[in-house]
Each structure stands twice: as structure tokens, then as C-alpha cells.
Amino acid sequence: MKHIPVAVQMYTLRNESERDFSGTLKKVAELGFDGVEFAGYGDLTVQEVKSLLDELSLQAVSSHVPLEELQENLPKVIEEQKILGSQYIVVPFLLPEQRNEADYRSLIPFLQRAGKTCREEGITLCYHNHDFELDRLSDGRMALETIFDETNPEELHIELDIYWLKKAEENPVDWLTRYQGRAPLVHLKDMTNDDEQFFAELGTGGVDIEAVLAAGEETGVKWWIVEQDESRRSPFESLEISMNYLKNKLPYLNAK
Questions:
Q1: CA-to-CA distance for 243 and 86, rounded, in angstroms?
Q2: For 131-158, what is the mean pLDDT?
């Protein structure tokens, strides 16, 4: 079994981070996570965050950075990732007014250029999907297909979110296989089995997590990233349930 490390997407803990960023990171380490994917750095500088990560033996995996910031301040974003020791920058989300064919078409050349700049600096640019990118454009292709068909695999990689793939009635394993070697980051998320399709702790819902874990070993996944957008219990409790599930399925995690 390949030892693919596990990180947490800090958006899961956004409220906790707002109150106590340092204390939140400490609890993440106590839960046994190997790394973190950032969605901001609280009230700390990147240098302070790096020092805290080193103290806690956590690795900065990646950062979700708004598209507008990447368009306006890419050199600064890259420099911050170098300070953190992070290898990935992720385009996290498109605003509703950006989810149309014309904007997708104009986004593609920017992603190509930005990805090239990142690669030249030793960073990999990734694009994170939701369900809306699975809508089809006028040529019959899904928007997500178009983005990756029309960019260089060396310049743009994908961060697959298995919850949103399932929400769009797609099979996450099929997408992992399709983008083998181009999907280094995967958001592990589960979904309730009812009509609400709410976010669920890993192993408690209807997403075939085991199949995804098995496929990841064959398709070049570098990091599993646990995220739960919303929780009906404490987010820390949700993360603990999910981590315990992974420790059961990935025994090497118990050695940490």
C-alpha cells in the first residue's frame, strides 16, 4: 500500500480559525493529519505560519487562492507558497456570474499562462471542481473537460472533489482514471444518502470512498485532503470521525 499522506482543508475549520488560528492548527496536528491546505492564514504572516507548521510537524500542502488574487498578484502568491514550502496553488471557486461559456473560454488562456509561470517557479497550479463545471457547453463537452482538454497537462493539474462529482452524478473513480498523473490532490468528502445530499463524515454516506482510495494508489494521487463544507456537529468531531475511518482503511496512518 502506497503511503499517501492526509491533509485537512482549513475551510472546514474557518470559524475556529477565525477565533484562534494557531490553536486550530495545533488541534489539526493532534488529530493526526500530516498537512494542511490553506484558505487564508488568519491574522498571521506566512512566516509565522511556517514557523508554526514546523513546530507542529505539519506540511503546507497547498493554498486555495481566489481567482482575482491570482490574476492580480500571482508573483506574491508564488512567493508565499515558497515560504510555506507548499507545492500547489489551487483555483478554488468561480463566482456565479463567471460560470458561463464566454468566461470559461477566457479563463482557459489565463490558467495556461499562470500554470506556466507557476511551473517555472517550481509550483503546480491546480483547478478545483464543483458540480457546476459538469454542465455542458455548446459543443457538448462539460466545462471541466474543456478546461483540461485545452490546457497543457504540464501547466494545469486538477484537484478532484469527489463530493461534487457525485453530486453531478459522475463517478469519481472514472475521473481519477481519466486524469491519471494529472490529479495530485483529491478532496475526500462524503454525502448523506437522503434527498438532501448533505456533507457527511467519511464512511457514513453514499460515496464509495474505498474505491477512490484504491484508485488513488494507481493514478498518482500525492495527497488526500479531507474537507467537510458544513457539519451538524463540531467540525473537529467531524474531522476526527473521518480520520478514524481513514486510519482503519489506511493502516499506515496509525504509525504516526
A1: 22
A2: 96
Closest CA to 130 of 179, 189, 72, 87: 189
Q: How many other C-beta atoms are found inside a 10 Å radius of the C-beta of residue 2?
A: 10
- Whole-angstrom CA distances from 74 to 45, 79, 90, 107, 240 are 17, 9, 12, 15, 35
Average pLDDT over residues 170-194: 97
| Span 64-92, average pLDDT | 97
Answer whether 176's CB lies under 8 Å from 190's CB: no
Residues with Cβ < 8 Å from 30, sequence gap 6 or more?
Answer: none
- Alpha-helical segments (H) within 93-223: 101-120, 143-149, 162-167, 172-178, 209-219
Other C-beta atoms closer than 10 Å to the C-beta of 233 total: 11
C-alpha distances out from residue 100 to 4, 138, 150, Å:
36, 11, 16
44, 10 in Cβ contact below 8 A?
no
The model carries a pTM of 0.96
- CA-CA-CA-CA torsion sign (165, 169, 175, 177): positive
Q: Is the pLDDT of residue 256 over 80?
A: no
Q: How many CA atoms lie within 13 A of 252 on its CB side?
A: 7
The pLDDT value given to residue 166: 97
- Cβ atoms within 10 Å, residue 136: 12
pLDDT for residue 2: 83
CA 203 to chain centre: 19
Alpha carbon distance 236, 239 (integer Å) = 5
